[in-house]
Write a structure and sequence with these properties.
The chain is α/β, with parallel strands linked by helices. It is built from 21 helices and 8 strands. It binds guanosine-5'-diphosphate (GDP). Keywords: Cytoplasm, GTP-binding, Hydrolase, Nucleotide-binding, Ribonucleoprotein, RNA-binding, Signal recognition particle.
């Protein structure tokens, strides 16, 4: 995500710093490069131009040039202005506890609208709401079945009628059904088309006026850059959107849509889609996004994802075993698996400040394969060996290697990693947070 814009911005900013002492002239010159990087990232032209004007006005002042660390100040200004462009934070769905909340989802075909309906339903259900999805996309033949499947997967009810029906009627019937079914949030999956056209807008306006949704969200594909922004503008002119949900940010290297859409339409980005799986919907945080764009990482989101993904009870059990000095190879394997659930190695590294730059060195590591190998080695051990790895002698090592299709050297390496990890844990288990930090540095 954002690889190319991050590289472009970092290149432009480093260029300024490399030019020696910061002066008004080299800041102005360097910011032109920053503007170029934004345009290459498909940021809308006026947005890029105004952004640079604001940064320049702030950066050439005395405050920056005379400060002790002008480079940090400059990055700080770019960071703040990026946040201002995409913000303020606004991911409330404004749901009421009394009555039925109506959320209308629209978007062009392929943007990820139906998937996002599922993601939203999943999120609402987890928060204790009773969602119901209405299949009102009569345009794409498979959309009704797709929504039904999502409903089954999530155990969320879906209201659907036979293909070819009138979408307004489907929405109204769906709403009536929600009342009897006891749902309190109804998500309408409306039609999409390949392009914005009058018929589509007419259909959506009809639903809007007859169903009177509380919130209207546009789902758009971040990877389409300025096209996404243009479609957001067209939808907003017709429907007065309450928010945008930007999908496929996981595959977006440029970031142009994320940066421009709020500025061009005035509509906030509520959520972002970070993958095809249903749990990959994140609230949009302009500050964290600005950090990711500048390659400063996003440790807060990583931490939140970890809390959501990790099995708290299992973690607690592992910690107890660790405290008693009984951390086993089985625990080691579980931990590795949990970390892998957070995303690919590359994804995780990008979210850790300062690690993004190291990515190149890790290009050749196939974490999936590594994990598979570790899994196979541990599976080839007896229960007793997993709990007491010090009993693994040479002949056992050879047997385990043969059983797992690996080399004895691989088994050795794993045992050594495990040994390092458990001694580190032993060392840290009795320490406070600050001392733990020191222990890791040693
Ligand atoms: P619709 O025509 O707008 O309803 O689009 P779909 O919901 O069928 O999605 C189109 C494709 O985009 C599907 O293959 C989805 O799995 C995929 N998709 C949706 N959201 C995301 C996302 O956030 N990231 C990625 N990588 N793929 C997504």
């Amino acid at each position: 995500m954002f690889e190319s814009i991050t590289q472009g911005l970092q290149g432009a900013l480093t260029g300024i710093f490399r030019s020696g002492k910061l002066t008004e002239a080299n800041i102005r010159e360097g910011l032109k490069q920053v503007r170029q990087a934004l345009l290459e990232a498909d940021v809308e032209y006026n947005v890029a131009t105004q952004f640079i004007e604001k940064v320049t006005a702030e950066a050439v002042g005395e405050k920056v040039l005379k400060s002790l660390r002008p480079d940090e100040q400059l990055i700080g200004i770019v960071h703040q202005q990026l946040i201002a462009l995409m913000g303020p934070t606004d991911h409330s769905l404004h749901l009421r506890r009394d009555g039925i909340n109506k959320i209308m989802m629209c978007g062009l075909q392929g943007a990820g609208k139906t998937t996002t309906c599922g993601k939203l339903a999943r999120k609402l259900k987890a928060e204790g709401w009773k969602p119901l999805m209405v299949a009102a996309d009569m345009q794409r033949p498979a959309a009704i079945e797709q929504l039904k499947t999502l409903g089954q997967q999530l155990d969320v009810p879906v209201y659907a009628e036979a293909p070819g029906g009138n979408p307004v009627a489907v929405c109204k019937n769906g709403l009536a059904h929600a009342k009897t079914a006891g749902a309190n949030v109804v998500i309408f999956d409306t039609a999409g088309r390949l392009h914005v056209d009058d018929r589509l807008m007419f259909e959506l306006e009809q639903i809007d006026s007859r169903v009177q949704p509380d919130q209207v969200y546009l789902v758009c594909d971040a990877m389409t850059g300025q096209d996404a922004v243009r479609s957001a503008k067209a939808f907003n002119d017709a429907l007065e959107l309450d928010g945008v949900i930007l999908t496929k940010l996981d595959g977006d290297t440029r970031g142009g849509a994320a940066i421009s859409v709020k500025q061009v339409t005035g509509v906030p980005i509520k959520f972002v889609g970070m993958g095809e799986q249903l749990d990959r919907l994140e609230p949009f945080h302009p500050d964290r996004m600005a950090g990711r764009i500048l390659g400063m990482g996003d440790i807060v989101t990583l931490f939140e994802r970890a809390q959501e993904e990790f099995d708290a009870e299992e973690m607690e059990r592992q910690q107890q075993r660790m405290l008693k000095g009984r951390f086993t190879l089985e625990d080691f394997r579980n931990q590795m698996k949990q970390v892998r659930r957070l995303g690919s190695l590359g994804d995780i590294m990008k979210m850790i400040p300062g690690m993004g730059g190291l990515l190149d060195q890790f290009q050749n590591i196939d974490a999936e394969k590594d994990m598979g190998r570790i899994d196979a080695i541990i599976s080839s051990m007896t229960l007793d060996e997993r709990q007491n790895p010090d009993r693994i002698d040479r002949s056992r090592r050879t047997r385990i290697a043969r059983g797992s299709g690996t080399d004895p050297a691989d088994v050795n390496r794993l045992l050594k990693d495990f040994d390092n990890m458990s001694s580190m844990m032993q060392k840290m288990s009795g320490l406070g947070v600050k001392d733990r930090f020191r222990a890791v540095q040693d």
